[in-house]
Amino acid sequence: MSPDRFAGRVAVVTGAASGLGRATAEGLAREGARVLLFDRDAAGLKAAMAACPGAVAVQGDVTSAADQARLAEEAGRLGPVTLLATSAGTVGSTAPLTELAEEDWDRLFDVNVKGTWLTLRAILPLMRGAGGGAVVTFASAAGLTGSPALPAYSASKAAVVMMTRSLARVHAPEGIRVNCVCPGSIETPMLEATFADAPGPEARARREAEFRARHPLGRFGRAEEVAASVLFLLSDDAAFTTGIALPVDGGRLA
């Protein structure tokens, strides 16, 4: 950690009220960035602001174009935006694909895919105006390999990976790098929701054991471990890195 790695830079973080977004925002703030926090959770935003000195918060939904326009307007007031982390996401239902309700499918893709796209559409023009920058989107190890437990989630995160790779090629000439992280099972509210969705205590215990067994390191990851990878990809240390989908998964995809 360097207290001035991002000194003088403006960063936007979606999903900043908890989990990976909160850890990323705190890391950026510790290393000197002025962070704009975006989330629909008002209480979580308030707590995140307290942990990120100098931060500004915008409450809104990533699936709303109007809310994203407000985000871009506020970001433009802070100065040149050169850093973006799109961590807002949802795990959705764990139902088999053939039993998944249409509204659950739509909500999953609205948040994970449309929400990421709307954020990029809102912030990339500001980054272009600043003369360049770095973006990290949030996919998943499940977006790089099939997931029997979370097939719809896997599909949505695979879409984020391909969006990231495509944008990396489009925006490289403008000095904008676009990468994504692909976490394994990380100790966050999202992972807890996956376990809580199990039908009963015994099923939950089996699901936890199955998820843990996928990781050769023998444990779940921590939010700050993913944030460290995000900060690397946002930093000038990764100046020649764009278009990658970086697993942070305890060896799951090894």
Quick overview:
With 254 residues, the protein is α/β, with parallel strands linked by helices.
Describe the structure.
The protein has 254 residues and is α/β, with parallel strands linked by helices. The chain is 46% helix and 15% strand. The protein is built from eight helices and seven strands. The protein has a seven-stranded parallel sheet, with helices on both faces. It starts with 9 loop residues before the first strand and ends in a 6-residue tail after the last strand. The model has no long low-confidence stretch (mean pLDDT 94).
CATH architecture: 3-Layer(aba) Sandwich
Uncertain stretches: none
Averaged pLDDT: 94
CATH homologous superfamily - what is it?
Answer: NAD(P)-binding Rossmann-like Domain
Main β sheet profile: 7 strands, parallel
Query: How helical, in percent, are the residues?
Result: 40-55%
Radius of gyration, taken over Cα atoms and rounded to an integer in Å: 17 Å
CATH topology: Rossmann fold
